[in-house]
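Re-run with default settings, no changes from the original entry. Doing this only to confirm the output is reproducible before filing.
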Amino acid sequence: MKCWKSFNVEKQYGEKFFVIMSFIVILGTFILLYVPILILFGEKPLYDNHLLFFILSFLAIYPVHKCFHFLPLVITRHKFIIQWKVIAYIFPQIMLIVKEPVKKGIYVISLICPFIILNAVIFTGITLFPHYVHYFTILLSFHLGICFTDFVYLKYLVKSPANCFIEESADGYSILTEKKASLS
């Protein structure tokens, strides 16, 4: 295999960029979605009980999001390592390090899987429990902020060749293509 392109998004943009942009996405999506969702699904009055359940759901979104990243890799029997890191002394970060090259399609599914599944669950909650639409809108906004990083990685992968492989290393990510056999 030969390297088609290597990139390290964290070195290119910086960790603070992702924290700030994720926060902007959280605020922006809440501001843009709250009123339309309230008009479409909300019922009067909105309830504020079950706050503990909301807080636990809020805290569980990030680990559940990461578990859904692992799901396609577990199904396809890829080997990976899970590591923890703390950003800005406050924000825990769970990192998934794949030990072997992964086909582009599986990696793309791994990136999109949490976005599709968790947002579907949240929208189901909005429709089934309209009195708690404000809680679900906050959860949706928070989850979309978490998904920001996934979409940055997806931006790089969309432009790569169709039959390539993605490999993680200490220097970032490498997009690998198969060497063509030479006719001698």
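The chain has a mean pLDDT of 87. The beta strands are 2-7, 80-87, 91-98, 102-103, 165-169, 172-177.
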